Amino acid sequence: MTYRFEAGRIYRMPTHFGPAPGPRQMPDGIATDPMRSPHRLSVAASFLTEAALLEQHLPQGFALAGEAVVTVEFHYMTGIDWLAGRGYTMVHVGWPATFTGTKDRATGRFLAVVWENLADPIITGRDEIGHPKLYAEVPPLRAWNGRQSCLAGWMGFRFLELEVSDLSDTPSPAKAPSDGTLMLKYLPRTGTWGEAELQQVTLTPAGDPHNTIECHQVGVGSVRFHRAAWGDLPTMHHVVNALAALPILEPRGGSVTRSRGGKTYRDQRVLV
Length: 272
Known about the structure:
Elements: E1 39-48, H1 51-55, E2 62-64, E3 69-78, E4 88-100, E5 105-116, H2 119-129, E6 133-135, E7 142-144, E8 147-154, E9 157-169, E10 180-188, E11 196-205, E12 212-225, H3 237-244, E13 250-260, E14 269-271
Parallel strand pairs: 5-6, 5-10
Antiparallel strand pairs: 1-3, 1-13, 2-4, 3-4, 4-5, 7-8, 8-9, 9-12, 10-11, 11-14, 12-13
Protein backbone atom coordinates (compact mmCIF):
# COMPACT_ATOMS: atom_id res chain seq x y z
CA MET A 1 0.00 0.00 0.00
CA THR A 2 1.43 3.38 -0.98
CA TYR A 3 1.60 6.30 1.44
CA ARG A 4 -0.48 9.45 1.44
CA PHE A 5 0.47 12.94 2.55
CA GLU A 6 -1.06 14.05 5.85
CA ALA A 7 -2.83 17.39 5.73
CA GLY A 8 -1.17 20.15 7.74
CA ARG A 9 2.15 18.33 8.07
CA ILE A 10 5.48 19.51 6.66
CA TYR A 11 7.27 17.23 4.20
CA ARG A 12 10.67 17.54 2.55
CA MET A 13 12.43 15.27 0.07
CA PRO A 14 12.66 12.36 0.52
CA THR A 15 8.98 12.37 1.46
CA HIS A 16 8.73 8.56 1.53
CA PHE A 17 9.55 8.27 5.22
CA GLY A 18 6.90 10.58 6.62
CA PRO A 19 6.65 14.18 7.85
CA ALA A 20 10.02 15.82 8.44
CA PRO A 21 11.16 17.24 11.79
CA GLY A 22 12.73 20.69 11.77
CA PRO A 23 12.46 24.20 13.17
CA ARG A 24 8.75 24.46 12.34
CA GLN A 25 7.79 20.87 13.20
CA MET A 26 9.26 19.28 16.29
CA PRO A 27 8.77 15.60 17.14
CA ASP A 28 5.99 14.78 19.57
CA GLY A 29 7.07 14.87 23.18
CA ILE A 30 10.02 17.25 22.64
CA ALA A 31 9.71 20.38 24.77
CA THR A 32 10.96 23.71 23.45
CA ASP A 33 11.38 27.12 25.04
CA PRO A 34 11.39 30.00 22.52
CA MET A 35 12.26 32.43 25.32
CA ARG A 36 15.64 30.75 25.87
CA SER A 37 16.62 29.12 22.56
CA PRO A 38 18.79 30.00 20.82
CA HIS A 39 21.63 31.97 22.40
CA ARG A 40 22.82 34.44 19.80
CA LEU A 41 25.89 36.65 19.37
CA SER A 42 25.33 39.06 16.48
CA VAL A 43 28.06 41.18 14.88
CA ALA A 44 26.99 43.67 12.22
CA ALA A 45 28.37 46.47 10.08
CA SER A 46 26.69 48.80 7.57
CA PHE A 47 27.75 51.09 4.74
CA LEU A 48 26.18 53.56 2.35
CA THR A 49 26.47 52.68 -1.34
CA GLU A 50 25.07 53.78 -4.71
CA ALA A 51 21.31 53.45 -4.93
CA ALA A 52 21.28 52.63 -8.63
CA LEU A 53 23.52 49.59 -8.08
CA LEU A 54 21.35 48.22 -5.27
CA GLU A 55 18.20 48.64 -7.36
CA GLN A 56 19.71 46.36 -10.03
CA HIS A 57 19.47 43.50 -7.53
CA LEU A 58 15.84 44.09 -6.50
CA PRO A 59 13.15 41.83 -8.04
CA GLN A 60 10.20 43.19 -9.98
CA GLY A 61 7.72 44.94 -7.69
CA PHE A 62 10.44 46.12 -5.30
CA ALA A 63 11.94 49.57 -4.84
CA LEU A 64 14.66 50.93 -2.57
CA ALA A 65 13.20 52.49 0.59
CA GLY A 66 15.24 55.36 2.01
CA GLU A 67 19.01 55.44 1.91
CA ALA A 68 21.03 52.81 0.08
CA VAL A 69 22.51 51.30 3.25
CA VAL A 70 23.73 47.71 3.11
CA THR A 71 23.94 45.81 6.38
CA VAL A 72 25.97 42.62 6.84
CA GLU A 73 25.30 40.54 9.96
CA PHE A 74 27.01 37.48 11.41
CA HIS A 75 24.77 35.54 13.82
CA TYR A 76 26.61 32.95 15.92
CA MET A 77 23.94 30.71 17.49
CA THR A 78 24.22 27.99 20.13
CA GLY A 79 21.80 25.92 22.18
CA ILE A 80 19.25 25.61 19.36
CA ASP A 81 16.30 23.50 20.47
CA TRP A 82 15.38 22.05 17.08
CA LEU A 83 18.99 20.86 16.68
CA ALA A 84 19.01 19.25 20.16
CA GLY A 85 21.27 21.93 21.60
CA ARG A 86 23.71 22.26 18.68
CA GLY A 87 24.45 25.49 16.84
CA TYR A 88 25.45 27.08 13.56
CA THR A 89 26.22 30.50 12.11
CA MET A 90 24.30 32.53 9.56
CA VAL A 91 25.36 35.60 7.59
CA HIS A 92 22.70 38.04 6.39
CA VAL A 93 23.11 40.72 3.71
CA GLY A 94 20.22 43.13 3.19
CA TRP A 95 18.99 46.67 2.61
CA PRO A 96 15.71 48.62 2.98
CA ALA A 97 13.05 48.10 0.33
CA THR A 98 9.34 48.35 -0.39
CA PHE A 99 7.29 45.70 -2.20
CA THR A 100 4.15 46.74 -4.04
CA GLY A 101 2.02 43.87 -5.35
CA THR A 102 -1.45 43.61 -6.82
CA LYS A 103 -2.98 43.40 -3.34
CA ASP A 104 -0.22 43.81 -0.76
CA ARG A 105 2.33 46.46 0.09
CA ALA A 106 5.11 46.12 2.66
CA THR A 107 8.27 47.98 3.64
CA GLY A 108 11.18 46.47 5.53
CA ARG A 109 14.53 44.80 5.06
CA PHE A 110 15.08 43.04 1.74
CA LEU A 111 17.13 39.95 2.54
CA ALA A 112 19.34 39.54 -0.52
CA VAL A 113 21.39 36.50 0.52
CA VAL A 114 22.05 34.32 3.57
CA TRP A 115 25.10 32.12 4.08
CA GLU A 116 25.04 29.32 6.65
CA ASN A 117 27.55 26.69 7.69
CA LEU A 118 25.13 23.79 8.17
CA ALA A 119 23.00 21.99 5.58
CA ASP A 120 19.91 21.42 7.77
CA PRO A 121 18.87 25.08 8.19
CA ILE A 122 19.75 25.77 4.54
CA ILE A 123 17.42 23.03 3.29
CA THR A 124 14.56 23.83 5.66
CA GLY A 125 14.85 27.59 5.20
CA ARG A 126 14.93 27.48 1.39
CA ASP A 127 12.15 24.90 0.98
CA GLU A 128 9.73 26.02 3.67
CA ILE A 129 9.95 29.80 3.92
CA GLY A 130 11.91 31.01 0.90
CA HIS A 131 15.06 32.32 2.55
CA PRO A 132 17.82 32.80 -0.09
CA LYS A 133 20.35 30.53 1.60
CA LEU A 134 23.77 29.36 0.43
CA TYR A 135 26.51 27.35 2.13
CA ALA A 136 29.72 28.88 3.50
CA GLU A 137 32.47 27.96 5.92
CA VAL A 138 32.24 30.32 8.90
CA PRO A 139 34.90 29.92 11.60
CA PRO A 140 34.22 31.02 15.18
CA LEU A 141 34.26 34.72 15.96
CA ARG A 142 37.73 36.02 16.86
CA ALA A 143 37.75 38.62 19.63
CA TRP A 144 41.15 40.17 20.25
CA ASN A 145 42.55 43.53 21.32
CA GLY A 146 39.13 45.20 21.30
CA ARG A 147 38.18 43.92 17.85
CA GLN A 148 35.50 41.45 16.80
CA SER A 149 36.55 39.76 13.54
CA CYS A 150 34.25 37.63 11.36
CA LEU A 151 35.10 35.59 8.25
CA ALA A 152 33.22 33.58 5.63
CA GLY A 153 34.69 31.42 2.88
CA TRP A 154 34.23 28.38 0.69
CA MET A 155 36.80 25.57 0.30
CA GLY A 156 39.69 27.77 1.28
CA PHE A 157 38.64 30.96 -0.55
CA ARG A 158 37.84 33.77 1.90
CA PHE A 159 35.16 35.94 0.30
CA LEU A 160 33.93 38.07 3.22
CA GLU A 161 35.56 39.85 6.15
CA LEU A 162 33.76 41.96 8.76
CA GLU A 163 35.26 43.72 11.75
CA VAL A 164 33.85 45.85 14.56
CA SER A 165 36.03 47.79 17.01
CA ASP A 166 35.95 50.69 19.52
CA LEU A 167 32.86 49.23 21.13
CA SER A 168 30.89 50.94 23.88
CA ASP A 169 27.77 49.87 25.74
CA THR A 170 24.54 51.50 24.68
CA PRO A 171 20.83 50.81 25.12
CA SER A 172 19.20 48.82 22.34
CA PRO A 173 18.21 51.29 19.62
CA ALA A 174 14.60 52.01 18.77
CA LYS A 175 13.76 50.09 15.63
CA ALA A 176 12.62 51.96 12.56
CA PRO A 177 9.03 51.25 11.45
CA SER A 178 9.04 48.03 9.46
CA ASP A 179 6.61 45.39 8.28
CA GLY A 180 9.35 42.78 8.52
CA THR A 181 11.87 41.00 6.33
CA LEU A 182 11.14 40.62 2.60
CA MET A 183 12.46 37.83 0.37
CA LEU A 184 11.88 36.30 -3.05
CA LYS A 185 11.21 32.54 -3.09
CA TYR A 186 12.07 30.99 -6.45
CA LEU A 187 12.08 27.38 -7.69
CA PRO A 188 13.08 26.54 -11.30
CA ARG A 189 10.82 24.35 -13.40
CA THR A 190 12.49 21.00 -14.01
CA GLY A 191 13.13 20.37 -17.70
CA THR A 192 11.94 23.82 -18.79
CA TRP A 193 14.98 25.87 -17.89
CA GLY A 194 14.41 29.59 -17.60
CA GLU A 195 10.87 29.17 -16.29
CA ALA A 196 9.77 29.18 -12.68
CA GLU A 197 7.86 26.40 -10.96
CA LEU A 198 7.26 28.82 -8.10
CA GLN A 199 8.03 32.52 -7.66
CA GLN A 200 6.57 34.41 -4.71
CA VAL A 201 7.43 37.20 -2.30
CA THR A 202 7.57 36.09 1.33
CA LEU A 203 7.46 38.24 4.45
CA THR A 204 8.65 37.50 7.96
CA PRO A 205 6.51 39.89 10.04
CA ALA A 206 8.36 42.32 12.29
CA GLY A 207 8.44 41.95 16.02
CA ASP A 208 9.61 39.02 18.10
CA PRO A 209 8.16 38.82 21.62
CA HIS A 210 10.33 35.80 22.40
CA ASN A 211 13.65 37.62 21.85
CA THR A 212 15.47 39.24 24.79
CA ILE A 213 18.45 41.57 24.27
CA GLU A 214 21.01 40.99 27.01
CA CYS A 215 23.78 43.34 25.83
CA HIS A 216 24.15 45.82 22.97
CA GLN A 217 27.32 47.66 21.94
CA VAL A 218 28.07 50.00 19.05
CA GLY A 219 31.37 50.90 17.44
CA VAL A 220 33.27 51.28 14.20
CA GLY A 221 32.45 48.68 11.54
CA SER A 222 34.09 47.61 8.31
CA VAL A 223 33.05 45.13 5.60
CA ARG A 224 34.97 43.73 2.66
CA PHE A 225 33.83 41.30 -0.04
CA HIS A 226 36.66 39.78 -2.08
CA ARG A 227 36.14 39.42 -5.81
CA ALA A 228 36.27 35.82 -6.97
CA ALA A 229 37.16 34.07 -10.20
CA TRP A 230 34.92 31.25 -11.38
CA GLY A 231 37.50 28.75 -10.14
CA ASP A 232 37.40 30.27 -6.64
CA LEU A 233 33.62 30.03 -6.19
CA PRO A 234 32.21 28.01 -9.10
CA THR A 235 28.54 28.27 -8.08
CA MET A 236 28.37 31.66 -6.36
CA HIS A 237 31.10 33.93 -7.67
CA HIS A 238 28.33 35.99 -9.33
CA VAL A 239 26.79 36.67 -5.90
CA VAL A 240 30.02 37.66 -4.19
CA ASN A 241 31.24 39.76 -7.12
CA ALA A 242 27.97 41.71 -7.26
CA LEU A 243 28.37 42.60 -3.59
CA ALA A 244 32.09 43.33 -4.00
CA ALA A 245 31.20 45.81 -6.77
CA LEU A 246 29.16 47.97 -4.40
CA PRO A 247 31.25 51.04 -3.54
CA ILE A 248 31.50 51.97 0.13
CA LEU A 249 30.61 55.66 0.04
CA GLU A 250 30.42 56.01 3.81
CA PRO A 251 30.78 53.51 6.68
CA ARG A 252 27.71 53.50 8.91
CA GLY A 253 29.14 51.86 12.01
CA GLY A 254 28.99 48.45 13.60
CA SER A 255 27.42 46.68 16.54
CA VAL A 256 27.65 43.59 18.74
CA THR A 257 24.51 42.21 20.37
CA ARG A 258 23.97 39.29 22.73
CA SER A 259 20.45 37.90 22.94
CA ARG A 260 18.45 34.79 23.69
CA GLY A 261 15.23 33.34 22.37
CA GLY A 262 13.50 34.06 19.12
CA LYS A 263 11.01 33.00 16.50
CA THR A 264 11.54 30.18 14.02
CA TYR A 265 9.61 31.91 11.21
CA ARG A 266 6.41 29.93 11.65
CA ASP A 267 4.37 33.06 10.86
CA GLN A 268 5.75 33.53 7.34
CA ARG A 269 3.38 35.20 4.87
CA VAL A 270 3.16 35.20 1.08
CA LEU A 271 2.52 38.63 -0.48
CA VAL A 272 0.70 39.12 -3.76
